[in-house]
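Hi all, long-time lurker, first post. I run a small reading group and we've been trying to get comfortable going from sequence to structure in the token notation. Rather than ask abstract questions, I figured I'd post a concrete chain and ask someone more experienced to write out its structure so we can walk through it together at our next meeting. Sequence below, copied exactly:
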Amino acid sequence: MDDVTARSLAVQDEPGWPDESGPYLFVVETSGPLERRLLDAWLERNRPGDVAARDVQVARLPATRRSPSNRRDPALAAFIATDADTLVVPLRVVWLAPQRAGRRTVQLSDLLTIGDPRDPGIIRQFLAYRRHPERARIIQGVAARLPELRKSWAESAALVEGRSLVDEVARRAWLTLERSERELRGTRYKVPKFPRESLLSSRQFQAGVAKLARDAGIPYEHMAGRTARYVREIAATHSPWVIDLVTAGFRKLITKAYVELEYDRTQLAALYQLGQRFPLVFLPTHKSHFDHQSLQFALYENGLPPNHTAGGINMNFFPVGPLIRRSGVFFIRREFKDNEPYKFVLRRYIDYLLQRRFPVEWYIEGARSRTGKLLPPRLGILSYVVEAYLRGAADDVIFVPVAIAYDQIQDVHSYAAEQSGAPKRPETFAWMVRMIRGLQRRYGSIHLRLGRHISLRDFLAELGEEPADAEDTRSPAVPKLAFEVANRINEAMPITPISLVTLVLLGDDRPSLDFDEVVELVGPYAAEATRRRLPTTIDRPLDDRTVVGTAVDELVLHGLVKRLVDGDAIRYRIAPQAQLAAAYYRNMVIHFFVDGAVAELAVAGVTGDEPDPVAAVHTEARRIREVLLFEFFFAGRETFDTEISAELDDRIPDWRGLLSSGGAAAVLDGLRPMRSPALLLPFLEAYRVVADIIAEDAYLGTIDEGSLVERAMRRGREQVANEAMSSGQSVSKILFETAVKLARHRRAFDSGPDVVTRRQALATELGELVDRIRWMAAGEQAIIRSPPST
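-- Answer (accepted) --
Happy to help. Here is the structure in token form:
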């Protein structure tokens, strides 16, 4: 190539010739004749005058832009076989997006019309270079001496994994080029290339397949085929083109449905620095189909790589499945308990991600919450991550709790329908179209909060219970870790004005409230949020009249609150058919106030005449905690006692003295306005329905657990119609299912000589708790004492 041609094929910001001395072996990756000419021109243009042409050799790397290739340039093996102290220098041509308004960005129109402008085909390369030569760039990977590469290869696991020196040199060159390209493009495209092929070709994976085949007594080829199918079924296959396409779609959906996605950019930046050293595991709440979109969009907007997100196999339908798989979602089955090959593949895939410090994400609740509360955590994938860490896949793993709050969500009415007994609609393409068409109005804002992160290494060290066996599923470390994650999610969940408005409207037994009454009822909760510095979605006081008014108007607009106009008087109430939907928003923040409600109920359960009234309050609070154990994330017993005392200290500093002097009624009066009716009564009334049915069947040898929820639904509807139940928000399939869990925990379904007593005692206990709250709500001064827990 002559000097004129070499100069005419110059590119912007090109790297210089290596500072180290030769001889040189440039290993180049190209995807077409123009890229080869650009690199040849670079070599001709930049070769120093004192470097002889014979000291500059070129070998081609297999192109990996679109698909993996095992074809090697024979020259690469020949040059590597020499004993010369050759400097190996990787080179590659990359293409930038067009420049718009000072930024090189890809637009949705680019992706849909001509494809990814950063990955042009052979013809488009010539067109792009002719019109915009500045879009072509040459990048240089980290150079290394051949003797150093040979030594590193001999000392690494490459030999064990069956990689030749040529394979290792090509792999190292490719890795350094990938890093250089990320520095140029940004870290949002830090994604694995060809994870399926990498996993299947791993010697460790193949050894595991051989063991599975041996244990199952089948040929290796059969097991290899089965595990390969599972790898294809599970693994995400990122594509920068699809990441841009899907994220552009997310942007349109989010801006169509919400005014703003609000989050702290500095938190994300700090996490990125941590993610450079250790793999990050994001554990967000799951309240809406916008959860994944919101978090991925926030990461993308801040130049961070997309998470590898576990998704249910139910979402793998055309065309959504192929798109979101290529944007980072890996699909897992709901049930695979007895499928050892499937579990093996999932474990190895998680190992692969953690070893390479790729960020991971899944919903620790396992499914979308239909009640608004955080669901009990599922331990499956969490245990796999802990196992991977114990096997040495990473030096540490950083768990990032993520709380995502919505002012309102589109799904809330379908959630209420499911709680009322309607079947869940399957996710299909038609379902997706209906969902998008249903976005007729905006639902406020999305509020994304990151909780305090957890170092797995530090957590296990403090726990002092690190299992010796990485496969030990009996270790208490995993459930304790899950509980800590859940607590930190709840800790970070911000309070929305709508959540407090629904709380007070649902909790008041008057037929309707005027606006001043709504503001007055919100006041104590707003004051506590300020006093305790609880997270909120706004900077203004939550009981500000404008804030409350906006929340009420939004609830009216979406049909959850009825505005009753009688002349000049305007009053509000929860629409009768919307009680479960409104309860969803209340439940999003209920955890902040539950301890206070339990403290009230405990005080109402003592007389003050006990030998130690203060101890009696704590005993009663612990008993109530045991009743609600499956509903809320309570602290451990000792910490719980401290929290109950702190709640009472905060509201009545002299409560101990009042109790000791026989003034239990005075303590109860000082706790008004009561929270228990608004926060606990809906749950306990639902539990009571199930307990009463069990008590009616107490003398049956076996109670049909499977029919209990349906019987409770019928009984609950009857009680609402007869006004024997406070409101319809207790007629919930999910609450009744939790009540069945409580009954099972109390051994109400076991056999034995005392089973009748256990069944009747549960109904009596719940009945007295419900009666106590009702009396408290009515302003009764009488205090009853429930029988001790059995």
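A couple of things your group might point at:
The first strand starts at residue 24 and ends at 29.
Residues 97 and 106 are 6 Å apart (CA to CA).
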